[in-house]
Amino acid sequence: MSLRTEPMTVNVGPQHPSTHGVFRLRITFDGEEIVEVEPVFGYLHRGTEKLAEERNYVQIVTLTDRLDYVSSMINNQAYCLGVEKLLGVEPPPRAKYMRTIAAELQRVASHLMGIGFFLQDLGTLGTPLMYCFRMREKILDLFEMLCGARITVSYMRPGGVLDDAPAEFWPALDAFLEGFPSEFGEIEQLVLENEIVMVRTRGVSTLPLDVAINGSVSGPVLRASGLAWDWRKMDPYDAYADVEFDVPVAAGGDNYDRFWVRMQEVHQSIRIVRQCIQQIEPGPVRLALPLVLRPKPGAEAYGRVEASKGELAFYLVSDGGVSPYRMKIRSPSLINLTVTEHLLVGWKLADMIVTLGSMDINMGEVDR
Amino acid sequence: MFGLSMAAGLLVTLKNLTKKPFTVQYPEERVKQHPRFRGEEFVWYEERCTGCASCAKYCPLGIIKIETSPSETLPQQGDKYRLEVFDIQIFRCMFCGLCVEACPYDALFMGSGFEQGQYSRKEMVIGIDDLRHADKKPSTYLRPQLESANYDPRSGKPLDWKDVGRESWDWHLKEKAGMRLARPTPPDYAGGPQAQEESNTSERTGGETKFGGPA
Asked: Where are the domains positioned within chain A?
């Protein structure tokens, strides 16, 4: 005897706690199996690109904080690199190192959020998430020392950084770096080899490399599929040319690999910060640029960084005025979402949220 | 062996069970706030303010409203614009600190508070009188002179307008008396020697740039 079944369409979100923001997935299930996926977004659209057209080049820094709000420093960095290219200036060496330190700390903080929420989506009920938040809190404390804010930092400026680090920053950073490996080791001991995590995530929602490349996927999601593609290596900006680090690559492209790549990248980021502390030299941290910048008319620039979620880029066009003629944001989360269908179709309901967590999307960046 | 790593994981949770909590019970206990914290209740020194409205022009949200009128005394005699309105719509403020960055005379500082909640929006607009009578405990954000004096707004005393400048308040008198020839520049601020010369004057807010502008 066979039962007649009908496919059922379910809306996940936009107010669902597991969608990492206001994101909606229209999923058609056949029993427990996903047969169709349609991501719907735009609930957090604030018109950043348009707002940028009526603000001057320094004021836009405050808008970039709000794109991917768990990695504001890296957004600042990408935007400032773009404006510097537009102006044809280069920040002083100390500023480059300060940026690298700040960006790598932010990458750690962002990956901690990614790891924590991924595990939360797996059903770990908060314990690893709270450990991750505890570590992230210390990084945010360092940011408060640097620039007076924790999330919306606005620390970087075209031509350098806002201000040099205060005297209390360096001992605090040393103390953080000393305590961090053992704390992060606890997370690794807790979940990295855990059988339940392995069984739930190994071989689930695999992303083949050709699909990933075809979909312009970047960041840890691409590296988990087996391509060592990292703009910090391919096109070193700021101080990345002077530091040594490895690009962790996994081969499987499944949920566990995406999670594993993030865990390894945290170690590499800490390694970069340590080298930066050794190499940084005293000096100015900011070029004396006027408060209101006016690039040459017709100038265009593409500022690109490897953000915590992938390739983040700002394409700026100037018409000679005080604000850009056009600012286009290439946000990694949005482009990584284009492979959602490949990742989800054919898998079960229980893996759907986990897969979404393993992609580590941020809706502030998807909708802009 | 199945279960071994789970035991290892449980060891971690056991270890953390015996640790002291990381969180604090907020209203009773507070975490340390750093001196650069960008908070509300802006600190404004009327004596230093010339009413140039650089802060209002530089605010990304345009929430600072300044109205001035020329005073009867001539500027050569040391007078300045009379400020009539200085409103900050603090309920829209995002505390980015750009107004403080734009102020060429060290007249505006970030505050260190974060607990201002009101029942109506009207009360969330800081007027000129509120600014006059606010606690003068400025944040050290973008003010290296306060930082080098190790000032902490959470524990320090309220500062007078004479104590907060990038240079001593009577530099013009000293210069007139021939005591000092060059205006001092703060160390480690905004680049090298040339940069300091440029950034130390009110021309910082000016429109002329080094990059040509429209051809």
From this structure: 8-367
